[in-house]
Amino acid sequence: MNLKLEYKKASESDLDFLLDLRMKTMNLHYANSNLPTTRETTLQRVLYQFEKANIIILNDEPAGLLKIDRNADKIDILQLQIDPILQGKGIGKAILEDIIEEASKAQKPVLLSVLKTNKAQKLYFSLGFKIIDEDEHSYFMKFST
Length: 145
Prior knowledge:
It is a single chain. By secondary structure, the chain is of the alpha+beta class. It has one domain: 3-Layer(aba) Sandwich (Aminopeptidase), CATH 3.40.630.30. 34% of the residues lie in helices and 32% in strands. It contains four helices and seven strands. It has a seven-stranded mixed beta sheet with strand order 1-2-3-4-5-7-6, sandwiched between helices. A hairpin with a 3-residue loop joins strand 6 and strand 7. Helix 1 crosses helix 2. The longest helix is centred in the N-terminal third of the chain and has 18 residues. It is globular and about 40 Å long. The protein starts with a strand and ends with a strand.
């Protein structure tokens, strides 16, 4: 698949897309973790650090969300979601590889968290992320250059 990925800063007009995306990509994982999946809690997660949200555009169509926080000393991937119909095509991997490359050039670690019920952790391990901590529901992972 030829990946022509672009990013567009998320705006209020994207909320319906983002809410739908979040429900499609995350509600099963939240349910399996015994966490709430109501529309209100899902919207709260969408709005969390919304100013850092970017719509992932693939071939001129919205394909997902990347919420990222670039700090002086680290890069935090706050949320990464790819529409389920597009998962498994290398989109998430390509995005993560770009972030890892950026972090390596800047000599910064990349941090993220993943629910223990989410199979995306296999991708993170394959790219070199390591678990540095955990809580009841999530693994906290780090890629160090």
